[in-house]
Every structure is written in C-alpha cells, then in structure tokens.
Amino acid sequence: MKDMIISPAVEFYDVVTRTHSEGGDALRSVLAEVDPSAGPILDVGAGTGRTVQIIAEAVPGARIVAVEPDLVMRTVLTHRVVADDDLRSRVTILADDAQGMAIPETLSAVVLYGVVGMLDRDERARLWDRLLPRLAPGAPVVVELLPIEQPQTLPPMPYAKERIGEHLYEATLRGEPGEDDLMVLNTTWRITGEEGEVRTVHGTSQWHTFGLDDLARETGLTAERLTLQAGLLRASG
C-alpha cells in the first residue's frame, strides 16, 4: 500500500456509510452464521468502527481484531470501543496497515470493507498469501468494492446527503482514469444552513479497479455478490 494522503473529507466518513447502508446489512447477514469459537474476526481497514459495531452485534461473544492505520479514523474507532463495555472487552485495535498487521493463527471471518481497492495487484497477492492459510474451514471473507471494474470517466453524481442539526450535508462524486488500473475520485461536500452555504470541502482519493470475479481468481475462493458493492468469498464445499 502506497503512503496514503488522507482526504480533508475524512470527517464525513460516517455520513457516507449511513447513506450507503446496504453493505452493512449484507455483512450482518453473512456473519450471523459464523462460529466465533473458530477464532477471532479480523476487520481490516476498520475505519471509525462502523463495521466493528456490526460484527459485535451479529456475532455475540466473538473476539474482534480491528486494524486501522489512519490516526484520525483510529481515534474515532478507539472512542467508540472505549465508550461501550461490550466492545471494550472484545475488540483489539491495531495501528497497522494491511501489509504489516499481525494476523491471529486462525480466523473465523475476515472483513475487508473499503480497503481492498487501496492495494495494487502485488499487494493483494501478498495479503492473500498471509490471510488464506489462517482461515478456519468455511470462514467467510466479506469485501466491499466500488462497482467499477476498469478506469473510466464518471460525471458528477449525488453521493451522500444528511441533515445534522441545523445544517444540511450534501456530497457529489466524480471520477477520472488514473495510471494503470487506478481511478481518481473527487468528492465535493457542501454544508448549508438557513443563512446559506457554511463551507465547502473537497476530497480526493485513489482506487485500484477490479471486480469480485478478479478477487475469486486471485484467491481461489468462490465468489457470491451480495449487493452492488459487497461480495462474499469462501472456499467451495
């Protein structure tokens, strides 16, 4: 994973996840069948803890390893965990990236939401080499991807909308091809109140484009699409 420049729009992360909640519902459904006695659940790129909360609710008693390298995201994650007695007893937080994280000996499930596209092909190959031998039999790998399998131009489109107090938060997203398999994604957030525009925030990120079938070929696992953006990888049989 290349050194990441965190977007100024990181403060709106949870606004986006509220707007696009289908992936969370799919994750909850898959994890409901997980046996936590097989090992902890690994959440790579845990962000502010949205997926950690879903994992904890879907699999009572499961131990959770939450990996988040970004300080801003991890600060919110830690606050969420510390404020909840149940999470505080079950969640271990690692300040590592996907390449450097310590992986438990056996995993009952792996969650990769919003992170796999930050890795290029070689980085993904190294991740699979480390992860796959640690999966318990039948353990699911749940991924969330952008529904973009090759670089392309995306015209501006609505991305998120939420009212918080007296302010309305609205975002648009546009994209353009980058180098090789990269997409360059630009977001514009406008926060308005009764007196008009309060502020505007621009953010830029990059995403390696590929599809769920590509991940199936890379891992040798069977793929199942859950939503437009979420998918399941699991050993067949």
TrEMBL record:
Keywords: Methyltransferase, Transferase
GO MF annotation: an example: methyltransferase activity
SUPFAM superfamilies named among the record's database cross-references: S-adenosyl-L-methionine-dependent methyltransferases
GO biological process: methylation
InterPro entries tied to this protein: Methyltransf_25, SAM-dependent_MTases_sf
Domain Methyltransferase, first and last residues per copy: 41-138
The protein's name: Class I SAM-dependent methyltransferase
Species annotation: Nonomuraea diastatica
